[in-house]
Design brief:
Blueprint lengths: L1 E2 L5 E2 L22 E6 L7 H11 L1 E2 L4 E2 L7 E7 L4 E2 L6 E4 L9 E6 L8 H15 L10 E4 L2 E9 L12 E3 L35 H14 L17
Parallel strand pairs: 3-8, 9-12
Antiparallel strand pairs: 1-2, 3-6, 4-7, 5-6, 9-11, 10-11
């Protein structure tokens, strides 16, 4: 068994893709393990899933796969983490027991300070690519995300007050008043000693500041646009 980001224990099912290449294509790393999350709006027959894994090519966490009729799922964790290609007989595929709920409609608005040209450009160049490539679990109203330097917030979902993901048949609305925010010029963060991995403390009196910025702080704020308050405590990947 494995544990999802929501803390649910998932039953696992491993299978091989018949007809998949036995060796990775040029430039593609072979996957040792991968986890996929079926979406509840698709039947996902085993034969179709096999075809989709074979046809998709490069697979990576967050990618929504829907290249075969009746198949729609999101790739979870991969080994290696950055993703790669399914290789017959070498890649274990783990299917999560719980299916992802899918929104019928969703309303997304951009932040004013990262808005570019018009709403259509924001949809086709940023919003749709994010939902095609970067979904990492169910979310609801208030969810902030970023794609290639542009920032957005989910302001409405259907069904109302529900959690879910965006599927290929989800209607995405993108027009409305731009969201304004105050952008900080400087931010000073200090880590709590408890929970801080030892590798970020070269000595008792020093911190690996570049490592903390690279592995925790920058990735966190890449996807957060909500306001901050002095003395506010943040938890980033358990730190």
């Amino acid at each position: 068994a494995t544990v999802s980001a929501q803390g649910q224990v998932l039953d696992c099912l491993s299978f091989l893709v018949a007809g998949a290449p036995a060796f990775p294509l040029a430039g593609m790393a072979p996957l040792r393990h991968m986890r996929i999350h079926f979406m509840e709006t698709a039947p996902n027959p085993e034969r179709g899933v096999r075809e989709a894994l074979q046809e998709q090519g490069t697979l990576m966490p967050g990618l929504r796969v829907d290249c075969v009729d009746g198949v729609e799922f999101i790739v979870g964790g991969c080994e290696p983490e950055e993703g790669g290609q399914y290789i017959e007989g070498k890649t274990d595929v783990i299917v999560a027991d719980d299916k992802l709920r899918v929104f019928k409609r969703i309303h997304v608005l951009p932040y004013k300070d990262t808005f570019e040209y018009n709403f259509d450009r924001m949809l086709f160049d940023y919003i749709e690519p994010f939902f095609n490539e970067k979904q990492a679990g169910e979310f609801t109203v208030g969810f902030d995300f970023a794609y290639n330097g542009r920032r957005f917030q989910v302001v409405g979902v259907d069904p109302e007050n529900s959690f879910g993901v965006v599927g290929k048949d989800t209607n995405v609305f993108r027009e409305g008043h731009l969201i304004e925010r105050v952008v900080l010029e400087k931010l000073h963060l200090l880590p709590f000693e408890e929970g801080l991995p030892e590798r970020y403390r070269p000595t008792k009196l020093t911190l690996d500041e570049e490592g903390l910025l690279r592995d925790y702080i920058r990735p966190y704020f890449d996807q957060r646009s909500a306001a901050l308050e002095p003395s506010e405590a943040l938890e980033i990947q358990g730190v």
